[in-house]
Model the fold of this input.
Amino acid sequence: MIATQHAVSTMTDEMAKLRQGIMQFTQLEAKVRESQTQESSTVREQVYEQLSKGLNLDVAFVRQKLPQVAEELKHSPTATAYERASGAYVANDYVEAERLALTAAAQARKVAPAQSADVVRALKLAGLAAQKRIAYTTAIEHFREAEELTDRERDPAPWAEIQHVIADVLLDQGHYRDAAMILQAVVQTRSSVLAPEHPDTLRSRSRLAYALWRQGRYNESEAAFRQLIGVEETVLGPEHPDTLLSHNGLAGALDDEGKHAEAEAEHRRVLEVRNKVLGPEHPDTLRSRNNLALALNRQQKYAEAEKEFRELIPEEEKFLGPEHPETLRSRGNLIVTLGNQDKDTEAEHGFRELIGAEERILGPEHPDPLRDRNNLGYALGKQRRFSEAETQFREVIRIEEKVLGSEHPATFRSRMGLAGVLSQQGKYDEADAQCRDVIALQEELLGSDHPGTMYSCYKFAYQLAGQDKMKEAIQFALRAATAARNVFGEDHPDTRKYAQLVQQLQTPDKLRSQDKTYAMEIGREPADALTPPAAKPTSAVLVDNSGQPVDKNKEALNGNVKVVFSDGHSEILGTDGKCLDPHMSQKGYVGWTHYTHLGPRGAAMNERLVIRLLDGTTKEFRPNPNGGQFIEEWGFVDRDSGIVIKSRGFHGPASFIRYDLASGRATARQDGYVEYEKMPKWAQPYSDDKP
Done:
């Protein structure tokens, strides 16, 4: 009996502690996030660990029971609206958490006198819930409403808390400059009110260094992280989790500065300490292994990176679970590494499988599946399946504009990806318009010296060069090269790459698609995606079955069509040796005639015209039976938007037919014996035999 009473008492005590933990959860989570140099799905695990220490409960017990108790609290008829909102938040029901938190705020306003602290607390919870469901604009609205009830001079602590969460959402939205300005004010306030070495001040300094990094101010970010680490090692200790997070942030800044070896060394240092202090199975240790593999990938050590990812993923599946967001991100990073090794088919299949899992677990509008759908678009583009890639990019952009907003960096990246595949299909007007619009927005929101803006100018320069618009291409390449030199210095890899492009554009005979950057995003904070430059056909000739040019002295000039591209690779089109008269247009379309058999006099019979478009697809045009059996001449007209075919029968007059290339429809025709001078303009410069 006594043992039973003791067990009941213990259970009641544990439930009370868990309920207390639920009420502390959002505040503690916000503190943990303040010190994050990047968003991590291990934040909740860190909250569980800190709660378990504070409540004197086993962390496994907290991890298992807290969501269950939170679900019960959400429905409790005796709990307050704020308590129920907190329960809903911990139970991952963010829509209900936001609704209940707003109810709690309204109730606190009605109390006489009004409890502004309770209103601020409830509005903050509503904003955090909205942020969790990626409703960033709504989250900002809740936080701004709370901000109006705080005062920097009179009560700086709550003011700083609200400013910090506002900055956090601005970072999620890609408004890095605005976030950095707010965080600078928070650091200043916390330094004077709490002391420069207070943990809250140090967390704000870490987030500020991260904001500088995201702005592309890598040198400043490196300096900020180094100064912060010096203080943290003294105040917190070299093995403290916050100190290690700052080392991780430093590694990211070093990586983007082009100091890849130093970045790798930082990641190895953090991994070694976490292995020793936390153990090899801890989520933070596993994340360090992921970061190390990414650093190897950035150095183009793809085989090593692939090996690291393949060893890591089974460990994450074992200790975190196969559906944990960190496991899914590592799978995505492995697939990117495969793509970097030109294992494009394997990458495509991997992304399709991963996206299915991410959409089921995280939802189709979560940034992770959107990022990997973007990556799938690039994987399709690498396989020259441009039409499929275009469809993929358009759908991703539609969702990103709805969820993240039209001014989010992820949306910019997807639009530049779309521009790339449009360009490769010869849809230059829309492709160029996409680039111009994105670059203008990036310059306005991020600045002309932001790495994303530089990348977009670089990519657009290649795109313009593919259209032989060399003067404007040089202008955009110079914008990228000048900005990179001013921001990164002469020796940065990007500076050298952009300068090299300028030189190539000024000597176009040397221009090749030398940039091998695989345009995918990786699970660390992703760099702006680059589309591989379009490889345009440069020549089309007849070759025999051995691939050698057909002897022009031969009476019958038939064979297969060999197309050579600007990146040096070639393709053989047709394998039966029945191709004739290949032409290449200014845009890079390739056409040839093809016959079924030879007539009694050796004439090609039942000819058709085949046009290969820039996306690799082909269209066929058959003038028979309205025209003759033979295609005497053909050519591109109206800036490659149409073709004209001159055909005739054995004894009959010639027929001229104009086709629209996009639709395949015949748009004009003329039959009979017609003097050259009387021909319609659409048929010139072809001449007909006079009767």
User: Anything to note?
Assistant: The longest helix spans residues 2-34.
